[in-house]
Amino acid sequence: MRQHYIISESDGVCRQHWACNRADAVWKQTMTDSVQGRIGRPRRQSGFQEMRSAAIVLLSLLIASSASAQAPDWQVNPSNFESNMSVAAALWIDGSETTNVNDIVAAFAGDEVRGVTGPVDSGSGLRFFLTVYSDAPGEVITFKAYVAAEDRVFDLAETTTFAANGIVGTVSDPFILSTTTLGSCSRGRPGWSVNPPDFESNMSVTAEVTFEGVLSGDAGDLLAAFVDTDVRGVASPTDTPSGQAFFLTVYSNTSGEDISFVAYDALNDLVIPVAESLAFVPNAIHGHPGAPFAMTASCELTSTAVDSPDTFLDGSVSAYPNPFRDAATLDFQLSTSGAVTIELVDLLGRRVWRTTSDRLPAGRHQIPIGSSRLASGVYVYRVTFGMRARFGTITVTR
């Protein structure tokens, strides 16, 4: 069995691994109880050390014996760093706060572990008291969780920025970490660039971008064209009498090449894929300021268990007929039962239709959508299950 703790024989101090954090927290609470008279005060300093060592050994052995063989061996060496910060977090899994004492949370800078801990029962729920180490102020810290009940590692949605001696969250107001993340999206402003002299031909796209049902309105937003991972054009938004538009020049040497698009949402610091694509045609013009080419940027919110299947939908959500005149059907299949909310949002970000089913059983479902109150145009549909959602577009014609 893999060892989950290392105890120094000379001073009884826990040197490595997440069990140490939990043991230290219990020891600190024991000291608080002692000072406040809730337990007998030790007579000498060595008694404190004995209590701490005993707590560390006991908790470490219990944790090690109950942990899954698949639990990650996350470790950090504090002596490699000069600074640290504290995070008091709560872990939410699929919309519910964890109650499993064998779960583990770790902090990362890139792929490097910068802190790891197990939970402590705070009286207000399980709390993860995480010490995060770094020597770089402003470094982006990401998080992962090992969920013992599922024996899986999850990437967590939240991030924080390192500040020496910083404190993030408290017992009563913890920093919330969740196993819901913006599936196909990523965070951080991209450094997209293209070199026009490398190409002989170009085409023009005048576009408007809708982020998760909300029309782009931030001057820091970006729109980029790609062929696979090769950037073929980048544009910032420009204000026009009809609203904000992206005047994008797309470069290529191959007629018919498939051009995909990715947008950056500055307000939420998200890089988001765009649903629409175009075939490259030299000197072609798509859209103009009065009628821009409409693009929909959307993250599919899904659970991100590493090497795990989607636990929400068996397959994609589809709407048919699309376009439609009088009525359409939204078709999806649930792998588990639960409440489902379906919404339609117009390209100005206004919700125009909504329905909620308190509990749908697992299996295939077909939900009708009527157009009697909808104007002609493109709408974004959103199917929400717990904290996860799927998006798509549907068009009403008159």
Please give a structural write-up.
There is one protein chain. This protein is mainly beta and about 400 residues long. It is built from two helices and 32 strands. The chain has helices at about 20-35, 45-65; strands spanning about 5, 15, 85-95, 95, 105-110, 110-115, 120, 125-135, 140-145, 150-160, 165-170, 175-180, 180, 185, 200-210, 215, 220-225, 230-235, 235-240, 245-250, 260-265, 270-280, 285, 295, 300-305, 320, 325-335, 340-345, 350-360, 365-370, 375-385, 390-395. The strands form eight sheets. Strands 3, 4, 7, 8, 11 and 12 form a six-stranded mixed beta sheet that branches. Strands 15, 16, 19, 20, 23 and 24 form a six-stranded mixed beta sheet that branches. The chain is globular, with a radius of gyration of 26 Å. The model is unreliable at about 1-70 and about 300-310 (pLDDT under 50).
- What's the N-to-C terminus distance? 68 Å
Question: What is the averaged pLDDT score?
Answer: 75
> Uncertain regions: pLDDT < 50 for 5+ in a row?
1-69, 301-312
Number of strands: 32
Name the shape in a single word.
globular
- Beta percentage is over 45%
- Broad structural category: mainly beta
**From the alpha-carbon coordinates, what is the Rg to the nearest angstrom?**
26 Å
Major β-sheet profile:
6 strands, mixed
Helix residue percentage: 10-25%
Total helices: the number is 2
